[in-house]
Design a protein that fits this description.
heterodimer; A: about 100 residues; mainly beta; Ubiquitin-like (UB roll); five-stranded mixed beta sheet; two-stranded antiparallel ribbon; 1 helix; 8 strands; about 30% strand; B: about 475 residues; five-stranded parallel beta sheet
Chain lengths: ~100, ~475
């Protein structure tokens, strides 16, 4: 878990999995999530185990989240913006069921 | 439409910023593409806004501010938050770069010359439990401190080897952040190997700084030396760290485990572009083959800074200036007064390299670190274990490209960044040869996942 050294000057609000969290201008999405106590960003598409930010610099792709409807964004590279809607926990994508033809 | 410039620089760390400043002095049009939100790279992350933390981060960090300011004033076109996913040679000369810019229209840049200055990444540290949330690199934690003033809470354990560990522990001590233990995995025999390089190290700028940091780390935390058998334990997230010290098995509760085994060059762009690479046995890493001007085996494609071989920020800044001077000569814009700056940069580069061999020898990871036990996950994306890779070698897979095809190691979203070195080491170990003979798995464009629109935009260049 991570905490902020300095009192937050200006705060902005993000929605993470339907819950509002505070972030500071200059945070990356990954930083804001960690500061809010959220350390699981995605689930492995292979085994489904929980993963969190590992490298913090765009290399490991463990912090992939959905931001404003766009999937597989690297949370450690995206600066926060007021009103961002973030979904964590992305994993194996379900294939849409093929339409049945009579 | 594709945008045409004389020089495209990828990366806005010390090497990229210094190169941009020098190239602009010579009158070249310059575009700098960087994934970060502000200039500085990882070493000077957030340096323009982060002045309030100079007391914690130290003078070496604050020193980057002048360069970042000079870069922004240089007149180079600066494209932050953009990923260069492809560099290819054009038939009409020069290079084309594909840019991924999420949420914005795709971009194509054409440069007469290209400088790759994308720096280093943490060496992957495959050990049991390293995929658990709560385990991250020491560099990641330091980036959170620089960018947002974020520090870990709860029992913090820092493990591994390398100069970043005493630096981070010292920075945390200044910030009032307790570290419950430092688990130093530096092999005892490394001291002997480093000894012949000691005189050069003592004559370098690193010696006094290093000793001060080591003393500060000793005051701030319990340091266990010659640690082996490191593992992270936990159900859904990290709960404890296990290790062995002097034959005794130990276990410490932990909320955060920060791993570090030095840093290695980021080779994806240069290798995918087709530049020759070689194994550096002293550093246990692949590096692009470079001339003294930082030029790769592809004329016009240069690499400067840690992406060309780990030497630190001062060397990177000098290498950026040297590469820009060489590119100016090639493109015919070298200013007369640039010769003195280039000569000064070459002196600074040599000075920065002094003592580096000692650090390389002292912090060289041993087989136990880079060739993990069979049960350890090596490829985090595809969850391939060391045992699977060894078994494939025994069944006849001779190299990393075959391994990749058989078990998908290196085919996940990180594209081998987290497993490429380990796969080469494991194949080498199993076959009883050097990673130099094994080689690195082939890296290909796009080096990062991009949208189809980003890729399609490359056609805008209208040139083969």
């Amino acid at each position: 878990m991570f905490r902020r050294l300095e009192p937050q000057r200006a705060t902005l609000s993000l929605t993470v999995d339907g819950r509002a969290i505070d972030a500071a201008p200059g945070d990356t999405v990954a930083g804001a999530l960690l500061a809010a106590g959220i350390d699981v960003t995605r689930r492995s598409p292979v085994s489904g185990t929980a993963r969190g930010a590992y490298c913090g610099m765009g290399v490991c792709f463990e912090c992939l989240v959905t931001i404003d409807g766009v999937g597989s964004r690297q949370a450690c590279l995206v600066p926060v913006a007021a009103g961002m809607v973030i979904e964590t926990g992305g994993a194996r994508r379900a294939l849409a069921e093929a339409p049945r033809h009579g | 439409m594709a945008e045409h410039v004389d020089l495209v620089i990828v990366g806005a760390g010390p090497a990229g910023m210094a190169a941009a400043v020098e190239a602009r002095r010579g009158g070249l049009s310059v575009a700098v593409v960087d994934e970060g939100p502000a200039p500085g790279g990882q070493i000077y992350r957030n340096v323009l806004e982060g002045g309030a933390r100079d007391g914690i981060l130290g003078a070496d960090y604050a020193a980057g501010r002048a360069l970042a300011a000079a870069f922004l004033a240089s007149g180079a076109a600066y494209c932050p938050e953009a990923t260069a996913f492809l560099i290819e040679r054009r038939t009409a000369g020069g290079f084309r770069l594909g840019l991924g810019r999420p949420g914005r229209p795709a971009g194509v840049l054409v440069g007469r010359a290209v400088l790759i200055a994308i720096g280093a990444q943490e060496r992957p540290v495959p050990l049991p439990g390293w995929t658990l949330p709560g385990v991250m690199t020491a560099g990641a934690a330091q980036t959170l401190l620089k960018a947002s003033g974020l520090v870990p809470e709860g029992p913090v354990v820092i493990a591994g080897s390398g100069p970043l560990i005493p630096l981070l522990v010292t920075q945390y001590a200044r910030a009032g952040v307790p570290v419950s233990a430092v688990l130093d995995t530096t092999p005892a025999e490394n001291l002997r190997a480093a000894l012949p390089h000691l005189p050069a190290f003592l004559a370098s700028g690193y010696a006094l700084k290093g000793l001060r940091l080591l003393a500060a780390m000793q005051r701030a935390a319990t340091v266990h030396r010659h640690v082996t058998g490191l593992g992270a334990e936990g159900d859904a997230a990290l709960e404890a760290v296990r290790f062995t010290v002097r034959g005794r098995a130990m276990r410490l509760p932990a909320r955060t485990l920060l791993l570090h085994q030095g840093v290695v060059p980021q080779i994806s762009l240069a290798m995918a572009a087709g530049a020759d690479h070689r194994w550096n046995a002293a550093r246990r890493a692949f590096e692009p083959v470079l001339t003294a001007d930082g030029e790769t085996s592809l004329p016009g494609l240069h690499v400067a800074g840690d992406a060309g071989g780990i030497a630190g920020a001062a060397a990177a800044e000098a290498a950026g200036t040297i590469a820009a001077a060489a590119i100016l000569r090639r493109l015919g814009g070298a200013p007369a007064e640039g010769a003195a700056r280039e000569a000064a940069a070459r002196r600074a580069f040599a000075r920065a390299l002094r003592g580096r061999a000692c650090l390389d020898a002292l912090f060289r990871p041993d087989d136990a670190v880079v060739r993990p036990a069979d049960e350890v996950i090596v490829c985090r994306c595809e969850e391939v274990t060391a045992g699977t890779i060894r078994a494939l070698v025994r069944r006849g897979a001779q190299g990393p490209n075959q391994i990749k095809a058989f078990c998908r190691a290196g085919m996940g979203p990180c594209q081998g960044r987290m497993c490429g070195l380990t796969v080469a080491e494991l194949v080498a170990g199993e076959r009883g040869i050097s990673p130099a003979e094994v080689g690195h798995m082939r890296l290909r464009f796009p080096v990062k996942p991009v949208t189809v629109a980003d890729f399609a935009a490359l056609a805008e260049d209208g040139e083969g």
